[in-house]
């Protein structure tokens, strides 16, 4: 399992962009995790699934609402990761009004989740292999802090906790 001080694994996530610009074409675009995080401070949070109750009601809204505070604390980007396809993540971004505040990145085959060791098997609930709920602060590709939730919990991966860690870093 990934830990503080480790480099984030090599993986390609997908991002759905509805508006062409900033080097992004419309549609799903690959995001090389290592290249996209190089030289930046990234607030990453991952969750089991788009449109799920806790994720939609609490997790994403907290990061959207505190996006300016993250920027003020030196965070260049906020990434939301979920084991969903890019089209679902794009629709969820519209629903959550993430705009340019949170990048909604799809880990469709759970490659990133598997590489970090932060998977959650929800096969019994008909959802297959998913990402565990967690947050981490990444500086230039290296994990600075990591907050992993216990199954079914939402206590340490929230925006407030990671924002406090970003301010202290």
Automatic annotation (TrEMBL):
Its recorded reaction(s) are: a hydroperoxide + 2 glutathione = an alcohol + glutathione disulfide + H2O
Instruction: Identify the PANTHER family for this entry.
Output: PEROXIREDOXIN, PEROXIREDOXIN-5, MITOCHONDRIAL
Keyword terms, alphabetized: Antioxidant, Oxidoreductase, Peroxidase, Redox-active center
What name does this protein carry?
Glutathione-dependent peroxiredoxin
Q: Give the InterPro entries listed for this entry.
A: PRX5-like, Redoxin, Thioredoxin-like_sf, Thioredoxin_domain
Top-rank taxon, per record? Bacteria
Q: Which organism is it from?
A: Hydrogenophaga laconesensis
Name the enzyme's class: oxidoreductase
According to its UniProt record, the EC number is 1.11.1.27
Cite the Thioredoxin domain residue spans from the record.
2-168
Role played: Thiol-specific peroxidase that catalyzes the reduction of hydrogen peroxide and organic hydroperoxides to water and alcohols, respectively. Plays a role in cell protection against oxidative stress by detoxifying peroxides.
Family listed = Belongs to the peroxiredoxin family. Prx5 subfamily.
